[in-house]
Design goal:
Layout: E1 4-7, E2 14-18, H1 23-35, H2 42-63, H3 73-83, H4 90-104, E3 105-110, H5 114-123, E4 127-132, H6 136-146, E5 154-157, H7 158-161, H8 168-177, E6 185-189, H9 192-202, E7 205-209, E8 225-227, H10 233-238
Parallel strand pairs: 1-4, 1-6, 4-5, 6-7, 7-8
Antiparallel strand pairs: 2-3
Helix pairs in contact: 1-2, 1-4, 2-3, 3-4, 8-9
Length: about 240
């Protein structure tokens, strides 16, 4: 039925929980920074980071290029460290961003049926794409760690594109870049707003992966398919994928 399967990442393929804004997190990150030779009082880092990130997001909104703009977190880090007298190389920025992400992780693993779903689609000759609201400096290392990269025919990360879901332009970029026929494509995600609403606005069918403890069927759902229990194997079943043995 469909030729192209477009997946969300976090909450759909990867089970993740992070803590990036608590005082305890910033204390831990400041301690990690000191071990790397960068001395920050955690309250200063917190103030600089949250203020500069907010400024970047506000500037992106005012530019008006997209309805849902995205920023590059590396630029935020460069400014934060410059305010404390550190001029960073590109390599250092990537290293510090990666450390920030690792420090924030509380839970991180693939969902039990992620690989089975992707393997099933590949064996049936389907094309698989990733459309993720994420920062490349955070996400790429996690894609490598989980071994997911080889499954994708194409990967779009919002920080690279300047926009994010539910902006239909993010979906359009994916379809244009990889020459996808929207009528032969379906979006699979766990977020009603960013995944389902965005797909509908872009004219792409959607499969809602309910990861909540309780599922309430909407009277007029904007998605074509749903797995009430959040099973990725339902993607194969409901879209009529025949898995080759």
């Amino acid at each position: 039925m469909y030729k192209n399967y477009i997946f969300d990442l976090y909450g759909t393929l990867i089970d993740i929980y992070t803590d990036e804004y608590s005082k305890n997190f910033f204390k831990k990150y400041a301690k990690w920074l000191r071990r790397q030779g960068f001395h920050f009082e955690w309250k200063l880092f917190y103030k600089l980071y949250t203020t500069i990130e907010r400024e970047h997001r506000k500037k992106a909104e005012l530019a008006g290029r997209y309805t849902n703009p995205e920023i590059m977190i590396e630029k935020v880090f460069q400014e934060v460290f410059a305010e404390n007298g550190y001029e960073l190389s590109e390599e250092q920025v990537q290293f510090l961003c990666a450390g920030f992400r690792r420090t924030s992780l509380i839970r991180f693993c693939l969902f039990p049926d992620t690989i089975a779903c992707l393997e099933g689609l590949k064996s049936a000759g389907k094309n698989i794409y990733l459309l993720s609201n994420a920062q490349r400096s955070f996400t790429w290392q996690e894609l490598e760690l989980t071994g997911l990269i080889p499954y994708f025919n194409g990967i779009l990360i919002s920080s690279d594109e300047g926009c994010m879901k539910p902006d239909p332009e993010f979906y359009n970029k994916c379809c244009e870049r990889y020459h996808l026929d929207k009528a032969q494509s379906v979006m699979i995600g766990n977020e009603l707003k960013s995944d389902m609403t965005g797909a509908a606005a872009a004219g792409i069918d959607a499969f809602y992966m309910n990861r909540c403890a309780v599922f309430h069927q909407e009277k007029n759902p904007i998605y074509q398919y749903v797995s009430p229990k959040g099973s990725l194997l339902e993607v194969l079943i409901q879209t009529g994928v025949t898995v080759k043995s």
